[in-house]
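Homework help thread (please don't just give me the answer)

Our assignment gives two proteins as sequence + structure token strings and asks us to describe the second one. The first is just a warm-up. Here they are:
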Amino acid sequence: MTIAAVVPVWNGREWLERMLASLARQTQPATELIVVDNGSTDGAPELAAARGARVIAMGFNAGFAAAVNRGIRESRSARERSCDSIAVLNSDVELAPDYLEKLVAADAWFATGKLLTPSTDRIDGTFDATCRGGTTWRAGSGREDAPIFDQRRAIASAPFTAALFRAELFERVGLLDERFESYLEDVDFGLRCTSCGLEGVYEPAAIAWHKGSATLGRWHSATVRRIARNQIYLLARHYPTPLLGRWFRPILAAQLLWGGVALRHGAGLAWLRGAMQGLVGARGVRKGGARMNEKVLRRLMQSNESDIRRIQEVTGHDAYWKWYFRLAGGA
């Protein structure tokens, strides 16, 4: 098994050092390490080079999607088509020693593990579930770890935080859509995988710790703006026209509720700017792209919303999802 590890980085030298140390301890080691630098100024790329990584300098902050794509393209193994798998790892992740070994054993098109918040028993993330309204929940985020998160299962979308992919998958589905820059580009990728009938695995025996939003912060204006824009991009790119009309109620509910959450965190203006950017750019995102099959998308959303309801019922209801399901109505 050959694994090319691709690590995009933009500052955060301290976190990158921890990540590289954990990667060096893997029982299933990466055969190639590529760090793609988005214009760091704190010595992060120099640290990576000193640790044996091949560092690719983007020269500026081109975004997460562009950095990941560059790493995949530039991988020696990928160029020679001799690489079995590609691991995409955030620079603020620390892996348990058997993390990659567990994901390899999952034997799926893609796989991810249980991500915890450092120094806590709280879930940072598991798998992604997108609702009819176009917003996505990283299932379990912020919850105390519980038995419901110990269930190995098939998934439609894996966060690109710490995931393993068969190299062939990128040939079949394509690379990340760089118009998303950062945030939800992995959800877009998951929807494209679903369109191709390719699914992954959530393997809870694989454990990692993720700082999360270590560079900008969860409610930084740039973060909120991009998420708001990219939620609309997801709708524009993947939803067939009949479903945009049929699901207008859940779409409106999801987007306005998310705007309300942003407002509560002092980022209402950033949300509004992002939503406007999404509406302006939606035609270009939609143009020339193949929408998902209506039956496939309906089935996926039914499954996703069932997962969200089930986890919320077991671990406690977020106000956002409580109100979403009240306002969205039936499928």
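The one we have to describe:
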Amino acid sequence: MKQINDILKKYNIKPHRYTKNGKATIVDSEMGRFVIKQNLKSKKIFDYLKSRNFNYYPKTINDENDDYEIIEFINNIDYPNEQKMLDLISLVSLLHNKTTHYKEVDFDDYKQIYEDIKNNIEYLNSYYNDIITQIETHVYMSPWEYLLARNISRIFNALNFCSYEVEKWYELVKEKTKQRVVVLHNNLDLTHFFKDENNYLISWDKSKIGIPIFDLYVLYKRHALDYDFTEILKKYEQSYPLQKDERKLLFILITLPERLDFNKSIYEITKDISREMDVLFKTENLISPYYAEQNI
């Protein structure tokens, strides 16, 4: 607390109340409300975003060399999450539009992604084959074993799809000489979107430069069962259409099954399997219209 007091004193902010909020501290003062958090050196990315005319992030009022950031407090409006998610994805598409640039293709990057996916597919195939082989030796199945046995074909179908598509994706990127990259927020979550008279993204600590689909991937993995991603993806592509190889890579990544942990209670394992099947089913419904003509 002494460090926070020292920072506030440096900028002539006289606090009269502190409120702890996770890793941050909300400070009420005569000058208004501020959020104090450890300085993770996000100022450089903010300077770049400002140069690209993207100003939808909380403003800091202190020096970047301080140990803590003093951030303006945003009075977040409460409104339906479905609309909030559409506003969030519109802001992400704007972020990607404003920061798009092209760099020379480094095939080692593509090769690394390709090999990582191939290795993951091979591992998951082996992992689930071993699990289902063991289950089939049991005379009586537990609830989670029965649920997995009934639905294991969905996991293997997803892995087969990914195995097929990653080869098609690798063929596409072999022809590319330029790679489209953007500033990735890289930590998208509905709780990281705020709105008052403007829209804001917070928690930029993990931001980096990369392929645009990785923001969509993170958002989908966190909220796949919460919202209609058909509409969300459509909303995003209205402003920022994905290239063919980008969309294919996104669909591969979101289709890859999770490695479920079977060292839990029967209840927890059953719940995890049920959720994974729901995600795989929803993902299939999301991407199938894009492949209908190809009959994949």
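TA reply:
I won't write it for you, but here's a hint about the kind of observation we're looking for: The longest strand covers residues 15-21.
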